[in-house]
């Protein structure tokens, strides 16, 4: 892989904070002082327990946070453009054409009253507004075939409730990948897929990165997968980064939280009799972040 440091970062996040008001008006932060950059063509893995702020970080980049969220940052930028200061219309077009997100659960991501073809046509129309009906249909079928759907014509005319979880996930992946985004956020993209299809999907993502120089943020609980597929990994707990390292070095991580995550995924050969219990340090959840953790 070429030297990623020689080019400006594709994505910049500095001191991102996302909070929600409780019933008594107190602002509780779910993401606390998050900072990192993503380079063009880089695969950045984000790992951590559920609730650590991984998905919220991805949604903040695309402006998909719920209305109740309170989001601030010193800098939140894509290709040098300030996303927080960007007009809403411009940001929507940017998300439709250059930024995309594969959401974790297709049941909540696909519109239940629209066919797959209708939903994919909406996404493709943002990228190619002058595409004719026949050409649009061919593009949709080709996109579905690219994620190894056996009968793409039938799936194109199906409604989401007629699809299995894995099939719906592949539809979401086809919808996002086929437009060739420059930034793709993949939130557990292979969680509903079997091992063979997961490998095929990762191959599709790999090809897209090589063809378009796409920067990938890969959110996952599968640490062995992240180690083999990503270039760099950040580990999150309680809304902040506690460790950053090259993906190939994750097995040798030093932070006790990262060591606990690794221990929770025992090997199939000679597994331990008892899984170790992670001992949580109250400092991980303290109000003042450890500035050195994200360096």
In short:
It is built from ten helices and eleven strands. It is α/β, with parallel strands linked by helices. The protein has one domain: P-loop containing nucleotide triphosphate hydrolases (Rossmann fold), CATH 3.40.50.
Architecture (CATH level 2) name = 3-Layer(aba) Sandwich
The proportion of residues in beta strands is 15-25%
Biggest β-sheet: count, sense, barrel? 6 strands, mixed
- Stretches where pLDDT is under 50 for at least 5 consecutive residues are 289-295
For CATH, the homologous superfamily is named as P-loop containing nucleotide triphosphate hydrolases
In CATH, the topology is named: Rossmann fold
Order of secondary-structure elements = EEEHEEEHEHHHHHEHEHEEH
Task: Please give the share of residues in helix.
Answer: 25-40%
**Strand order, largest beta sheet:** 7-8-9-3-10-11
**Number of discrete helical segments:** 10
For the record, what CATH class applies?
A: Alpha Beta
General shape: globular
**Total beta-strand segments:** 11
Rg over C-alpha atoms, rounded to the nearest angstrom: 20 Å
Domains, number: 1
Mean pLDDT: 85
Which class do the helix and strand fractions yield?
alpha/beta
